[in-house]
DNA sequence: GGTGTTCCTGACAGAAACTGGCAGTACCCC
DNA sequence: GGGGTACTGCCAGTTTCTGTCAGGAACACC
């Protein structure tokens, strides 16, 4: 292994292992001496990486400057931050956590000039009130949707009547006041939208509809668009 | 310059110059011999870069395998996509454009496995209706806020009365039904929130309040938080 | 203060890698 | 064929790297 190879390997290790990473862990991984690891860390620093090293603690990769930075324009960055802030206020704690985590990863890959902009972004998202709490585990629903797995649940409609449904979940849509599951409903043999707060007892059926989610979703969206156009026409006739 | 340094430099050059890049151009850039450049290209290939080299033509970087791809977990990716989709429906066309552009840039830096997930994300954002149209150029407002430049505008309050304001803009906040400018108002010598749809005739005053935006915004947020706590206490006393 | 853990740096001799120059090969295009 | 360009092996001299050893510093904990 050439030294250059090893330096690349060290960067990978510092990126992927949880901090702090000790020099002796790097010795075990590379097979070189402790003194060489210290030299290598120095070389990586010379290449622009910002690596924090505290005696008795270990190394932390602060800035990965050996990489070309992500090149976002300022307004793209503001859009990213605002978007992730929107997700944190949307009312889904697991998604909020993912959004914060994504934001931290972006931060690690931005040039220093833009880190400030990310931390003190001009745009912010706020909500008063919350949409009603989902009656099911949304993370499980997301996974099932992505896996194109048919699900079952109990659904309470606007009048309070409860029915058992089997659906092919296509998309989860976030609107101002409700979070909706767009799906193909086996009971109605048609597309239906379900409010997440009215769903209970989510389960997997064991059946799959892969690989049809994307075209089905496209059909459903087409349907909704056509209905919106119809409704606009009806309004024009009456107006 | 160490060899490792030079290898990094060569990668930067291959990324940034239009293909094809000749070996002699690389000689000119690095000051080493042609023979050494051939060796370096070989070394970069050994590190995983896919570099096409045609006699009489030059080098083309096909795959930049020396870079780790952006490493987002699946739910982080869904959060990013949902967030950017939220921004596209928020009612600000310039921001929507920036969001789409940011999405394209993310896509270019994801591993192939995740590109599919980004294109056919499970989560989506929708709005019925729109918040009222801003009465000013929001892009100019964003720039002024970032620049910490005092602005002036006419403001129509809820009763229809119009006043001229000079403010230090601190943040633009997006809520369900209104977009607000959080600012320090010179007329009232106090923090105020202004609805963007009630603002007219945005202008720069030439004055700046840099570098005070971040601490002022912190104070304003603290104020709002304290007021919310007060309001909750009042409700508890009455309830 | 003492102990343990860990980062840090300089010096040295020997080992390893690198370099430029040279020679020869191959491919594409005019 | 000639020009432009990528490619590879060889060699002597140069440069860099390595492990060992020694010494120092910082932090946490008892």
Structure summary:
Two copies of one chain form a homodimer. With 239 residues, chain A is an alpha+beta fold.
How many domain regions of chain A?
3
What is the strand content of chain A? 15-25%
- Strands of chain A, total number: 8
Order of helices and strands of chain A: HHHEEHHHEHEEEEEH
What's the alpha carbon Rg of chain A, rounded to whole Å?
A: 25 Å
Overall pLDDT metric of chain A: 87
Structural class of chain A: alpha+beta
Assembly form of the protein: homodimer
Q: Give the helix tally of chain A.
A: 8
Low-confidence sequence ranges of chain A: none
First-last Cα distance of chain A: 78 Å
Please report the two chains with the greatest interface, counting residues with C-beta closer than 8 angstroms to the partner's C-beta: A-B, 62 and 62 residues
State the helicity of chain A in percent bands: 40-55%
The neighbouring-strand order within the major sheet of chain A is: 7-6-5-4-8
- Overall, the morphology of chain A is elongated
Largest sheet of chain A: 5 strands, antiparallel
């Amino acid at each position: 292994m050439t030294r250059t190879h090893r330096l690349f390997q060290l960067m990978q290790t510092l990126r992927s292992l949880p901090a702090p990473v000790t020099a002796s862990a790097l010795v075990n991984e590379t097979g070189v001496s402790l003194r060489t690891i210290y030299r290598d860390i120095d070389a990586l620093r010379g290449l622009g990486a910002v690596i924090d090293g505290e005696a008795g603690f270990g190394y932390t990769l602060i800035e990965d400057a050996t990489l070309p930075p992500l090149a976002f324009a300022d307004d793209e960055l503001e859009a990213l931050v605002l978007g992730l802030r929107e997700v944190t206020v949307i009312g889904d704690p697991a998604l909020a956590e993912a959004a914060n985590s994504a934001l931290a990863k972006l931060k690690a890959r931005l040039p220093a000039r833009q880190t400030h902009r990310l931390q003190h972004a001009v745009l912010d998202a706020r909500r008063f009130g919350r949409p009603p709490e989902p009656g099911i585990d949304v993370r499980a629903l997301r996974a099932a949707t992505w896996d194109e797995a048919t699900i079952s649940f109990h659904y309470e409609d606007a009048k309070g009547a409860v029915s058992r449904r089997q659906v092919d979940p296509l998309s989860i849509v976030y609107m101002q006041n409700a979070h909706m599951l767009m799906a193909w409903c086996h009971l109605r043999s048609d597309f239906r939208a379900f409010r997440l707060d009215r769903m209970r007892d989510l389960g997997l059926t064991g059946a799959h509809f892969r690989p049809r989610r994307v075209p089905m979703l496209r059909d459903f969206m087409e349907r909704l668009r056509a209905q919106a156009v119809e409704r606009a026409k009806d309004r024009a006739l009456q107006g």
